[in-house]
Amino acid sequence: MSYIIALTGGIGSGKSTVSDKFKSLGIPIIDADIISRKIIISNTKIFNIIIQHFGLTILNNDGSLNRAKLRKKIFSEQKEKKWLNNLLHPLIHEETQRQLMLFNSPYLIWVIPLLIENRLDHLANRILVIDITRKEQISRIIKRDKINKLEVKNILFNQVKRIKRLKKADDIIDNNNIKLKLDNIILKLHKKYIQLSYEYFLKKNIK
Ligand code: ATP
Q1: Model pLDDT for residues 58-69, shown as the tens digit of each residue
Q2: Which of 67, 116, 122, 148 suits 200 as a labelling partner, its CA being 20 to 30 A distant?
Q3: In angstroms, rounded to a whole number, what is the distance separating the alpha carbons of residues 50 and 70?
């Protein structure tokens, strides 16, 4: 069992960039996106249900799922998003719980973009929010994903507002600045989390 740090932030805020740095310090990473991707790929029944629902146009030429197309569909229609969530969430939840219990490192990083939206914050011991202004966020996503402003806005519409996310934060990384000394910030947090984990488990053992 490890002390659980939930790492969250809006799309394109820098979650992967930050989690890669924790990973290089030897910290286990549990990634909600990887879990949901794995469930769709490794569970033929689920894969087929999705194809039946959305049609063959949701596939790439090689027969794999076109995630960008799926994302476009679910973010432009609320009822499609709800349908997919109902299908996947119980399985994602089960696999997440399994993985959260798997490690014995002092702490682990759980990358969970929709932590607040899906009311999962009770599963974490601490919440680390990556913060970025809306303007910077839109420009980074357009650059990275080669999508237009309207598509970005559809995605953002489905995510909680910056202020609401920040209110839940125990720690915040302000990732607006390109010249940010991210390595130093992560190292500081790393030391803090080791200390917090130590205190947490000490208290738990004493009780
Ligand atoms: P998603 O929600 O889509 O998974 P994310 O939160 O994991 O995204 P990243 O992929 O880490 O975000 O970052 C989004 C983009 O912004 C990437 O192209 C990344 O290289 C860039 N980026 C991250 N941090 C910075 C920074 N401080 N300055 C400039 N660009 C950055």
Answers
A1: 999 998 889 888
A2: 116
A3: 10
